[in-house]
Design a protein that fits this description.
The two termini are 28 Å apart. The chain is α/β, with parallel strands linked by helices. It is 38% helix and 11% strand.
């Protein structure tokens, strides 16, 4: 257990160093060190009056339906946010969230559905009942069993989207955990970090992505 924890920490530290353009730490045997290395960042005290953001960032994305008022008092899905839909199996989480995603797409927003729970056949059944679902760009993560799921999802998100639906959060988390043999906390942290980076516009189009993630 200790070895697994140490390996997860090493991976996280190595990833941080790579993101900052730093070389990997080498041991005396020219092998990556297991011990984590922390990068000290100067403390920054922020005065919000000195901050500035585009007014467009604070204009919610609307579906044109009453559900908009459930997201914000002004009506609409906020940008650069992460929303978790929680509920028992079979109560309609996927249907409601796909309906929201489809309406946002019709309104002109760029959307993506990361589908880890259903196959093409499963979703086809939904589309027969709700034809507008068929217009949503979808990636079925189960079709990439022989690939690195981390890379697949990162590449899918790279272009930049206004809204991304993940169905479900835990299924993607478990795929990463099993494929890369990391801990639950490590796979969860990777997914949350990825979402936050796209909230901040770290994608090709600089879009401040909002994620709607389904969780049972």
């Amino acid at each position: 257990a200790k070895a697994k924890i140490a390996e997860a920490v090493r991976r996280a530290a190595a990833r941080k160093r790579a993101e900052m353009g730093l070389p990997p730490i080498q041991s005396e045997n020219n092998v990556n060190s297991v011990a984590p290395t922390y990068i000290e960042k100067p403390i920054e005290l922020v005065k919000m009056r000195a901050q500035s953001f585009s007014p467009h960032l604070f204009v919610p994305m609307t579906t044109g339906k009453p559900i908009d008022l459930l997201f914000t008092k002004d009506g609409g899905v906020p940008k650069a946010c992460n929303i978790m839909l929680i509920g028992d199996p079979g109560i309609g989480k996927s249907t409601v969230s796909l309906d929201i995603l489809s309406d946002l797409a019709i309104a002109g927003n760029k959307v993506l559905f990361i589908c880890a729970e259903m196959t093409r056949i499963d979703l086809y059944g939904y589309v027969q009942r709700f034809p507008k679902f068929g217009e949503v760009d979808t990636i079925f993560t189960g079709e990439y069993c022989e690939s690195n799921p981390k890379t697949v999802i990162e590449q899918a998100l790279a272009p930049g989207y206004d809204v991304v639906l993940i169905d479900s959060f835990v299924e993607v988390q478990e795929d990463i955990k099993e494929a890369l043999r990391v801990s639950t906390s490590s796979s969860e942290k990777w997914l949350i970090d990825l979402m936050i980076n796209h909230n901040l516009g770290k994608n090709d189009e600089g879009k401040n992505t909002t994620f709607i993630a389904i969780q049972q």
